[in-house]
Amino acid sequence: MKRLPRPLPPVTLSEHDGVRYLHLGSVWIQGAMRIASPQRLELDYVQRMLAPLLWLPSEALGGGRAVQLGLGAGALTRFTAGALGMATTAVEINPEVVAVNGLWFRLPRQAEVVCGDAADWLAQAEPASVRLLQVDLYDHEAAAPVLDGLDFYRACRAVLEDGGLMSVNLFGRQASFHDSMARIAAAFGRSQVWGLRPTREGNTVAVAGRGVVVPGREVLAARAAVIEQRWGALGLPARKWLRMVRPYTAEDSAT
């Protein structure tokens, strides 16, 4: 059944202490950019959306294609296209969000921006073409992901290359969290799903892979050190991620 279109909320901006914030018709923060350092990742959960870098060999960082479903304030798009140098596509349904990013959030010229529905984009995307897929699809109420069904997560898996990874922003304090984790596990397989600790605001980042082989702790620690050496100043505390992440378990799908 085709989803009925939702009315798109107005985009507003605010600034505080050198950081510009994006809002969608409410006080909820939908994205942020430090004006003096646009590639720096200001929000904790956005930093954790890049935790899948730990699952990639250090020599592979910067290769492949990154896709963001949901543009927000463009933080992940600026980072993957700029700091990582990856071929990057961002998909955003709200044309006003795209326009505001171009005017106020240093949207990278080298990034491809598609104004459209994320589910429609997945349906026509080339299979096995994406190395990093970052999903952050919330409406102005920020209560639950707009796209969160089993078919959606299966489509996400289909666009990942072998060894590719998806990160998803979920609200760990919402009743829907366990259901979301169960659907991700059903689409990717339980052994290919991990979760990070919730942020203080309650955001929990889930990571899912397609055929990912997780190395031993020593290799992961070495990868974390490389990530911090290269991008720690831009907000990637990779060694902390190692203490936050845990494999998916049956308790994650408990109701």
- Silhouette: globular
Number of domains: 1
- From the 3D structure, determine the CATH topology: Rossmann fold
Mean pLDDT: 92
Task: Note the main sheet.
Answer: 8 strands, mixed
CATH class, named Alpha Beta
Spatial strand arrangement across the major sheet: 6-5-4-7-8-10-9-11
Order of helices and strands: EEEHEHEHEHEHEHEEHHE
CATH homologous superfamily, by name? Answer: Vaccinia Virus protein VP39
The CA-CA distance between the termini, in Å, is 27 Å
Measured on Cα atoms, how large is the radius of gyration? 17 Å
Question: What percent of residues adopt helix (DSSP H or I)?
Answer: 25-40%
Q: Report the CATH architecture.
A: 3-Layer(aba) Sandwich
Q: In what range is the share of β-strand residues? A: 15-25%
Q: How many alpha or pi helices?
A: 8
Which runs of at least 5 residues are low in confidence (pLDDT < 50)?
Answer: none
* SS-derived structural category: alpha/beta
How would you explain this protein's 3D organization?
By secondary structure, the chain is of the alpha/beta class. It has a single domain (about 40-245), classed as Rossmann fold. It is about 30% helix and about 25% strand. It contains eight helices and eleven strands. It has helices at about 45-50, 75-85, 95-105, 120-125, 150-160, 175-190, 215-230, 240-245; strands at about 10-15, 20-25, 30-35, 65-70, 85-90, 110-115, 130-135, 160-170, 195, 205-210, 245. The strands form two sheets. An eight-stranded mixed beta sheet has the order 6-5-4-7-8-10-9-11, sandwiched between helices. Helix 7 packs antiparallel against helix 8 (about 240-245).
